[in-house]
Specification:
- By secondary structure, the protein is α+β, with helices and mostly antiparallel strands.
- The chain is built from two helices and six strands; from the N terminus they run ββββαββα.
- Strands 1, 2, 3, 4, 5 and 6 form a six-stranded mixed β-sheet that branches.
- The chain is globular, with a radius of gyration of 15 Å.
- Residues 109-120 have low confidence and may be disordered.
Amino acid sequence: MAGDPFDVDDEGAVVLRLHVQPGAGRTAVTGRYGDALKVRVAAPPERGRANEAVVALVATTLGVAAGQVELVSGPSSRSKRVRVTGVDADDVRRLLTAAMEASQQVPGRPGNGRRGGGVR
């Protein structure tokens, strides 16, 4: 992925830049937002529930335990940074690309998965 939405810190952990949309209809990695990864979580932004959902989504997407994912900035902002330990940058790149591609597919619809916009 050109211009990765993450950096590798001095200890070898991956630090993801995220743009979070809380209260969404579904939880998913949906694409890019500038230099960040855009994610949607169904949890509302109340009492840290959206942050917990973000940590769970990142852990699931990257195949790591939730304890390996730490919110390091942006607890009350849509712009967040999460640190993930025990992952390889190339694996992260591959898994994020796959997650974004999967979110673009709409079950039962051929083509690029986009809705509407066609001539009727």
